[in-house]
Fold:
Amino acid sequence: MAVGIFDSGLGGLTVYREVHDLLPDLPLVYFGDNAHAPYGVRDADDIYELTCQGVSRLFEAGCDLVILACNTASAAALRRMQENWVPPDKRVLGVFVPLIEALTERTWGDNSAPREVDVKHVALFATPSTVASRAFQRELSFRAIGVDVEAQPCGGLVDALEVGDLILAEALVRSHVDALKRRMPHPEAAVLGCTHYPLMAEAFAAALGPDVRIFSQGKLVAKSLDDYLMRHPDMRGKGQTSGFLTTGNPRVVSDQATRFLHREIVFQAA
Structure:
């Protein structure tokens, strides 16, 4: 009954943490493609191939359902995977839809026509590849009309967080927020479109100001997964064992992950 969580590196651990806290009895297998991180500077074909390889490994581990806890993979690879690659008895889901449903105040499975929503000016902070894909804007357009999205590619932020350089990360957050606000001076909401970014939620909030509502993904994805599994209990895979897999050096990645989540995490070679 294991569920897989895929990420290019450590950022998906923020989703893992929320899923584990909400569903503590659900076996989870986490796969970090640390040897090829970050994905945010790779092209779409490269991201697609790497994501398929990682998800295949999670299928082998007994996961019939895999969450792409990587916004870049969700943006650049998910639709192509669902259309051409995912076997009929498996499911691969992304992290954009729960976020957009919360932003547009839609309930799960609401497939009605797009409509006007209260939020009109949205700031999107994401990796360069996610911004270039325009996947967030595409999914938003299926649910809402009249929303202006200003996207800011946050180069360097993932790298700083992966190595634990919080001083540099805070400086980058301020720089990226300043750059966005020059184009959109008064955003009403800000979307943290990378699973690394919740670690810097306070820095984003301080730079954006108290009137901007911030949306990040961990808790939203966990609640959506709980709902999905209640409606599709057959998607609880046959795996019974939790674990952490990496394409990187397991000892190094384990040390980084432990610092990242402030709890002991032990990775094994994928």
